[in-house]
Amino acid sequence: MWRRFLTWLDDRTGWSGPLAKILRYPVPEHAHRNPLFTLGGLTLALFLVQAVTGMLLAMYYEPSPEGAYRSTDFIQFELPLGWLVRGVHHWAASLIVITVVLHLARTYLYGAYKRPRELTWLIGIVLFLVTVAFSFTGYLLPWDQTAYWATKVGTEIAGSLPGLGPLLLRLMRGGLEMGQATLTRFYATHILILPGILVLMLAAHLLLMRRYGLVGPLAGQAEGDGQGGKQRDKSVPFYPDHLLYEAIIALVVIFLLIAASRFFPAPLGAEADPTDASVVPRPEWYFLFYYQLLTYFPGWLEPVATVLIPIFFFGSLVLLPFLDTGSERRPWKKPVTTGAFIFYALAVVVLTALALMR
Ligand code: HEM
After folding, report:
1. Is residue 356, in this structure, part of any structural domain at all?
2. Residue 329 C-alpha to ligand 1 middle, in angstroms?
3. From ligand 1's centre to the CA of 38, what distance in Å?
4. 269: CA distance to ligand 1 center in Å?
5. 354 assigned to some structural domain
């Protein structure tokens, strides 16, 4: 029955030809079954989970200071399976940050940013920023004390930027103070603007990845485009072989997210009270390192942490494909790029640990 329906549809649309062409591209054997090469696909799967759970949450969520907390409380404690939908959305948001960073680390260490994949890499950096923006805008939505005060501090940091700061603060808050306009802007950005940018950027990222294929293995070769010698011949089709492998991993992860929602429900503190500044604003764990960094640059030194260090960090990522242009991709043969990677990774781990100990 299903087959007959598909044949009927194919007769009228001719969809199967182009689809097969898109899906049956070769995945090099070294990448198939290498978990490091599934991180991009897993991130994509998690974004799909976010889209589905986000749509369900939007059916009950009220984006107003009076309704935001009440409706989140309703979803969490009264709506049948509301805890599950909110829990999966909450834990998947944290996991996406981990998978995106690991995917970035994998492409960095494999030298996948090199010619001809510079654009894939640059679009990846935009995707990374979009992921961070999703987290930042989503954090405010439950409108509980931590969400309110952490976002107040977050927008104040943006407001302290020299030059553009005050404009940025008004743009984010929709005025000088936090209120209805802030919530509306964060909500619109979270459910409309960022998903739009994400879809466009992802399409470009995947088309480029499809065009140039995946980078070759590290051991035993060091050519620039990663399509070296014999490896080119050894491959499996993306559909069904590699897709099945990725789907199994995604299903296991979704199962773990369900378990996490059951045993560690998504948190919801007391309702936001703009007059009660006694709360110590605590950002999500993945922003902790940055809050710790800020403590070392008080007063007039603050722009070092808010402007110079981010410009240096993102600037080095953007320039990487244009600075490291040699054909060598093995990390152990590239002390400068690998050293920079270790330095960044250590800095984030140590700063996060220090923030947790405070
Ligand atoms: C929303 C976030 C992202 C998604 C969903 C995504 C998705 C993917 C997928 C499915 C692949 C092919 C399979 C794989 O390598 O895992 C890929 C490849 C690639 N991605 Fe991403 N990506 C994202 C973010 C990033 C970031 C942050 C970077 C780095 C700045 C990046 C750089 C690359 C590069 C260079 C490749 C080619 C890899 C190679 O040839 O080995 N991506 N991406």
Report:
1. no
2. 17
3. 9
4. 35
5. no
| pTM metric for this prediction | 0.94
- Ligand 1 binding pocket, CB closer than 6 Å: 37, 39-41, 43-44, 47, 100, 103-104, 107, 110, 112-113, 117, 120-121, 124-125, 127-128, 131, 202, 205, 209, 214-215
CATH of the domain at 48: 1.20.810.10
Cβ-contact 233, 243 below 8 angstroms: no
Closest approach atom of ligand 1 to CA 125: 30
177 part of a folded domain? yes
Nearest to 108 by CA among 218, 26, 221: 218
Q: What is the predicted pLDDT for the residue at 292?
A: 96
Question: In total, how many domains does the chain have?
Answer: 1
Short-list 137, 151, 141, 129, CA closest to 189: 137
Query: What does the alpha-carbon distance between residue 265 and residue 88 come to, in Å, rounded to a whole number?
Result: 9
Distance CA(316)–CA(179), nearest Å, equals: 37
Is residue 232 included in any domain, yes or no?
Answer: yes
pLDDT of residue 226: 46
pLDDT at residue 273 is higher than 90: yes
If you ran DSSP here, which 8-state letter would residue 271 be given?
Answer: B
Helix (H) or strand (E) holding 76: helix 67-77
Burial class (CB in 10 A: 0-12, 13-18, 19+), 321: buried
With tokens 């603050």, the residue in question is: 302
Confidence of residue 228 (pLDDT cuts 50, 70, 90): very low
Q: Pick the closest to residue 144 from 72, 58, 60 (CA basis).
A: 72
pLDDT above 70 for 222: no
Q: Residue 233: which domain range?
A: 27-283
Q: Which atom of ligand 1 is nearest to the CA of 101?
A: 27
> In Å, how far are 95, 228, 247 from 253, measured between CA atoms?
10, 33, 10
Question: If you average pLDDT over residues 153-170, what whole number do you get?
Answer: 95
Question: What pLDDT is attached to residue 156?
Answer: 95
3-class secondary-structure state, position 330 = coil
Span 71-117, pLDDT tens digits: 999 999 999 999 999 999 999 999 999 999 999 999 999 999 999 99
pLDDT recorded at residue 269: 95
Per the DSSP assignment, residues forming a β-bridge with 266 are none
Q: What is the mean pLDDT of residues 26-30?
A: 92
